[in-house]
Amino acid sequence: MKVGVVTFPGSLDDVDAQRAVRIGGNEAVALWHADADLKGVDAVVLPGGFSYGDYLRCGAISRFAPVMAEVVRAAGNGMPVLGICNGFQILCESHLLPGALIRNDHRKFVCRDQKLRIENNRTPWTAAYEQGAEITIVLKNGEGGFVADADTLARIEGEGQVVARYLEVNPNGSLDDIAGIANERGNVVGLMPHPEHAVEELTGSGTDGLGFFTSLAAATFA
Amino acid sequence: MPKPEILDPQGKAVLGALPRLGFSGVSDVRQGKRFELEFDGEVTPDVLAEVERMAETLLSNPVIENYAVTVEQ
Predict the structure, then answer these.
(1) Alpha carbon separation from A42 to A77, A105, A185, A216, B13 (Å, rounded)
(2) Which positions in chain B have a beta carbon within 8 angstroms of at least one beta carbon in chain A?
(3) What span, in angstroms and rounded, lies between the C-alpha atoms of B24 and B14?
(4) Nearest chain B Cα distance for residue A99, angstroms
(5) Which domain, by its residues, includes A146?
(6) How many domains does chain A have?
(7) pLDDT over 60 (residue A222)
(8) Quick one: how far is CA A135 from the chain centroid?
(9) What is the structure's pLDDT at A219?
(10) Active-site positions, per UniProt (chain A) (predicted)?
């Protein structure tokens, strides 16, 4: 499958995400924030970083980049979209995902190997994992606290839209220890920790993140 | 402004700093943003409606923030 990785001004992890896509067995296609089309890709990854310098609010300006109009349209048609860290923030600002991400409750940037539980393996990004799988991948954020109003939170929990939950430590004050969520349809997933940094023994804290990039094939052929 | 039910870590930091500087009696601090938009000519109801749209689409995130628009001559 062809997986587009969008580079915004200030994206940091786009090259790592492209590499993870290739290691996961798919073709990585570089997309630029000013592109008006998605170059025929089958899925899109919005990578981590500090797009537009995090000015105004994280992801608030990226949401209106030309490429995002196409991403929003494609997501509405069921295209798999994965937002990691800043990409998660962009998906929330775009209203493709419910809730929002605010400054960590302890106000410090956090960078740690974080244990997670995969709560929903029925998305195109998590199909390669066993339901309830416990994985460890790196987390690095300053504004990763997931919040939503009580009704939204109850709906997310009730509909099984929580994709991953923090284990042992809640590193940023996220409600219900939520590390990642999906939209109702399940094709759009946002995740605060970084699976693209855990795809090779040489550089990662392991290869627990690889499943996010091999899942596309697993979901397609399931 | 962050909605009342949304945690405001920056406001909490300011609240914690005030007593250290000898200021007392403050029971809570919320930190928000202020935007000053300038227009040539009169701010008509149409212009004001446009500003409201700016506020809810870009300037604020209605999921976590409330906003208010005021006009100054």
Answers:
(1) 11, 37, 17, 10, 45
(2) 2, 5-7, 9-10, 12-13, 58-59, 61, 63-64
(3) 12
(4) 6
(5) 2-221
(6) 1
(7) no
(8) 15
(9) 67
(10) 85 (nucleophile), 194, 196
Distance, CA of A47 to chain centre: 7
User: Looking up tokens 């000013």, which residue turns up?
Assistant: A34
What is the DSSP pairing of strand A2-7 with strand A43-46? parallel
Element (H or E) spanning A83, and its range?
A: strand A81-84
pLDDT in tens, A152-200: 999 999 999 999 999 999 999 999 999 999 999 999 999 999 999 999 9
Task: Tell me the DSSP string of A162-202.
Answer: EEEEE-S--SS--GGGEEEEE-SSSSEEEESSBGGGSS-TT
Length of chain B: 73
Q: What is the DSSP letter of A41?
A: -
Q: Which residues of B16-53 are buried (b: 16+ CB within 10 A; e: fewer)?
A: eeeeeeeeeeeeeeeeeeeeeeeeeeeeeeeeeeebee
CB contact under 8 A, A100 and B59: no
| Residues of A with active-site annotation | 85, 194, 196
Task: Decide if A21 contacts A3 (C-beta within 8 A).
Answer: yes
Rounded Cα gap, residues A46 and A29, in angstroms: 12
**Residue A131 CB contacts under 8 Å (≥ 6 apart), including other chains:** A118, A119, A120, A121
Q: Identity (one letter) of the amino acid at A73?
A: R
Rounded Cα distance between B16 and B28, Å, is 9
Domain with residue A15: its CATH number is 3.40.50.880
Nearest chain B Cα distance for residue A5, angstroms: 24
What residues of chain A have any CB closer than 8 angstroms to a CB in chain B? Answer: 56-57, 60-61, 64, 92-93, 98-100, 102-107, 145, 147-150, 173
